[in-house]
Write a structure and sequence with these properties.
16 strands; nine-stranded mixed β-sheet; alpha+beta; 332 residues
């Protein structure tokens, strides 16, 4: 099978705010940052400590019979557990207490107090643990959007998706593999909304997803203490190689009014992009009034116009503008 081109994510050491803002962030490419102080969490956050300090606060979790979670087809269920019980279970490979089966996988993405209105904030949901974690000051305080606890069972793999805000993924305990794809490879990822339909990125079905191999694969392995800078719109897929605890910190790098104010997760497209996509949908409905050969002709003209007006890489070959079938589907 033809393999994707693999590119290691560059590693930077001795990164401070000035280096990040001058050399890393403007490049709009992923980067692993090592040696940035994250606070005493690196030493303190054992399973026992997390359970004790996190207490019996109820948390909503994903539970699946398989470690490869699929958001598009929902191969998991949502359940609620006290935080201390969840941490205990997630750290085990076999469970004496379980919902679905004794080797089920767990995943926590922490939520705000009012999940429909408030973004996650470690300081509010887990104040006793938040004091152990120091958020790097790589952005202005008023740009802060959310800090998200992520805790997963060993082997858990999350679906490929993009976020619309810049973020830092801090690996506090455990080891995590992260595979990333450039926004410019979006046409090869078979998108449904903000997610890729290609679930198994290591052994993809090339009959169903023949162009997936054209996407360049960026890869890194995060060790405790590592930070991964994930620029907005970069697709990412994570696999926990060991039981692990991480914190995602998101911030608004565009003006605040660029984002949907009713989005507590930070994953809705910017307001202008949403309007543009809606306008495009209306334009496509208008083309439905024409015969097939006319739709084909004017569709190609629209593709060429979009490419000419928006693509950063103006040298892209004309052949790339002809989209393979089923590249984009409506959000599920």
């Amino acid at each position: 099978m033809e393999l994707q081109e693999k590119i290691p994510v560059p590693v930077f050491t001795e990164v401070d705010r000035d280096v990040f803002l001058r050399e890393i962030c403007p490049e709009r490419r992923p980067a692993v940052l090592r040696g940035v102080s994250l606070g005493p969490c690196l030493e303190k956050w054992t399973v026992e400590y997390l359970a004790q300090r996190g207490g019996d606060k109820e948390v909503k979790i994903h539970v699946s019979t398989v470690p490869q979670m699929d958001f598009l087809h929902k191969n998991f269920v949502y359940r609620t557990l006290p935080f201390n019980e969840f941490v205990k279970r997630a750290s085990e490979k076999k469970h004496s207490d379980f919902f679905l089966c004794e080797d089920e996988s767990y995943y926590l993405r922490s939520l705000g107090e009012d999940v429909r209105k408030e973004p996650a904030d470690l300081n509010k949901q887990f104040p006793d643990l938040a004091e152990d974690f120091h958020i790097p000051h790589f952005f202005e305080p008023d740009q802060f959007f959310s800090s998200v606890f992520r805790i997963s069972s060993c082997g858990l793999q999350l679906w490929t998706h993009y976020d619309v805000m810049d973020n830092l993924l801090a690996q506090v305990t455990g080891v995590k593999r992260v595979v990333l794809y450039s926004p410019q490879d979006a046409l090869h990822l078979y998108l449904s909304g903000d997610k890729s339909e290609v679930l198994d990125i290591d052994a993809p079905d090339l009959k169903q997803f023949p162009d997936f191999v054209k996407a360049k694969r960026y890869e890194c392995v995060l060790e405790p203490g590592d930070l991964l800078f994930i620029p907005a719109l970069w697709f990412h897929n994570t696999t926990a190689l060991l039981f692990g605890v991480g914190v995602n910190v998101f911030w608004r790098h565009l003006p605040a009014d660029s984002y949907d104010k009713k989005d507590p997760y930070g994953n809705k497209d910017p307001v202008a992009a949403t309007r543009a996509l809606q306008a495009l949908e209306r334009a496509l409905h208008t083309l439905d009034e024409l015969p097939a050969d006319y739709r084909d002709f004017y569709g190609r003209r629209m593709i060429h116009l979009i490419q000419k007006r928006t693509f950063c890489d103006s040298t892209q070959e004309e052949s790339d503008s002809t989209l393979p079938s089923r590249q984009f589907t409506k959000p599920g």
